[in-house]
Amino acid sequence: MAFFAARSAKTxxxxxxxxxxxxxxxxxxxxxxxxxxxKRKYPLEQYIGQADEAMxxxxxxxxxxxx
Length: 67
Ligand SMILES: [Zn+2]
Hints:
It is built from one helix and four strands, in the order E-E-E-E-H. By secondary structure, the protein is an alpha+beta fold.
């Protein structure tokens, strides 16, 4: 059931397609950026350099969950 444990958090980064704010989201085995407006997914690597507070705290939780 781990697949359904995906969580997400709202970030302040904008979708390059529609300017909507992106979510950071994860499944059991990957983390990525997602736009709820146009449903696009973007690789986290593309945004990690501009990570905001929401992203940083989300990522902390991701790694803690694996213990
Ligand atoms: Zn979008």
